[in-house]
Each structure stands twice: as C-alpha cells, then as structure tokens.
C-alpha cells in the first residue's frame, strides 16, 4: 500500500485530509511541523508528500529542499498563498503540483492520483540509451552523467525520458503536456519551461559536443543528440 505523508500544522485540515486519503485506499501519516516532517521522511520515505508552506520549525520550502537533496519523491505543495510567484517558486524548487487553500479534500485526492499515475514510457528495442557521457536506464528509471547518478523528480524524469526516447525530434509545450503530464493535467504550460530549466541545470556538465536540451523559439523543445552510443 502506498503511503502519503501529510505535513500540515492545522489539526482540522490534517485530520480531514487524512480521512479522505485513507478512504481512497492509501496509508497515511501526519506531521505537524517541518523538523518532524524531515525526520519522518528520512526514517521511512513515503510514496508522496502533501506539504504545507507555512510551518513551525522548518518552513515548507526548507522541507522541500531537504527532500530534494536525497529523493525524487513526489511533493504536492499546499498553502494559503495563491500568488503566481509562489506557485512558480514551488514548481521551480521541484514540487510536482501546487494547491491553494481553501480547497476541497477530494480535489487533493484527485491530484494525488494524478501525480502517482503520471506515465512512464515503454522503450522499444533497448532498456537504456547513451549520449556520450550521459546515460538513461529506462528500466530502473535512473539517469547518469559522467558515471554519477542524478536525482531527478518523477515528473522531470518522465519528461527527460520522453525526450530521450525521441532524440532530435521537436515537441511543443502542448504535446509534452499531453505525452508526459497526461491529458487530465490542469496546470499551466509554464510547468514545461520550469522543468526544462531544472533539467538543464542538472545537465550543466554534459558536453555540448555530445548533446543538449534545446529550446526552439516559437516551436518547442528537443533533446539534441550529437553523439549516441
């Protein structure tokens, strides 16, 4: 059974969320401050984290950074702040989704379902692909650069894997959302830009003579592969 970690300091909200999540068939545990959440995550990593921003001890951004330093576990940010800047910050820091209070608990459950079922891609002919010093193992969903295993969030990894399956092909934002996020995705297409930005940062030391993630203005994105093994 998949476990959902709720990090929320308001008791009424956390109890209602837990009831809905358990009714949906997940195991669930609750932490009421950031430090407790970080310790709980380290001791027993969950399948997904529902994370409030305004927390005592460590705030939600700090907890998210703690998680991302060691794991690609999906994280849904949950906060009273609804400004566009906060949503962009959450996605840019590696959150997989973002919801503003007030919310309907069944919508949170729907978002959990959507994040956990984001598609993986079948590989035709090979379980891995290598572009010089950059390698993707599709079977284990692992990415390596210069022999080092890179930590990538599930959504960003799915995007990278899709582009690697189709090297040198160009895809629009809309096509990538449909193919990677799924047709039920209701967020902004800005999420694609942010994911590409994070992936470029991770692949900063990938030699350009081997390949690169390219933006084609007005057209879309491609994984340009100059060298394939």
TrEMBL record:
GO cellular component: cytosol; protein-DNA complex
Domain of life per record: Bacteria
Sequence ranges assigned to domain OmpR/PhoB-type in this UniProt record: 126-225
Modified residues (4-aspartylphosphate): 52
Biological process annotations from GO: regulation of DNA-templated transcription
DNA-binding region of this protein: 126-225
Molecular function terms from GO: phosphorelay response regulator activity; transcription cis-regulatory region binding
Assigned keywords, A-Z: DNA-binding, Phosphoprotein, Transcription, Transcription regulation, Two-component regulatory system
Domain Response regulatory: 3-116
Protein's name according to its UniProt entry: Response regulator transcription factor
Organism, as annotated: Paenibacillus thalictri
């Amino acid at each position: 059974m998949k476990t959902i970690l709720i990090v929320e300091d308001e008791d009424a909200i956390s109890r209602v969320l837990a009831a809905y999540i358990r009714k949906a068939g997940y195991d669930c545990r609750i932490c009421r401050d950031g430090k407790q959440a970080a310790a709980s995550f380290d001791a027993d990593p969950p399948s997904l984290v529902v994370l409030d921003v305004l927390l005592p001890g460590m705030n939600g951004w700090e907890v998210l950074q703690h998680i991302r330093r060691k794991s690609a576990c999906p994280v849904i940010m949950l906060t009273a702040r609804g400004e566009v800047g906060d949503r962009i910050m959450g996605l840019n820091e590696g959150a997989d989704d973002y919801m503003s209070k007030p919310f309907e608990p069944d919508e949170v459950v729907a978002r959990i379902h959507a994040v956990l079922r984001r598609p993986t891609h079948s590989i035709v002919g090979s379980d891995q692909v290598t572009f010089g010093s950059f390698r993707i193992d599709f079977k284990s969903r692992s990415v390596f650069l210069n022999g080092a295993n890179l930590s990538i969030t599930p959504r960003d990894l799915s995007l990278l894997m899709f582009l690697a399956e189709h090297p040198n092909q160009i895809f629009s934002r809309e096509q990538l959302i449909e193919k990677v996020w799924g047709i039920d995705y209701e967020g902004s297409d800005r999420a694609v830009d942010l994911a590409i930005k994070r992936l470029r940062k991770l692949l900063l030391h990938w030699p350009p003579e081997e390949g690169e993630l390219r933006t084609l203005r007005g057209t879309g994105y491609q994984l340009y592969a100059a060298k394939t093994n």
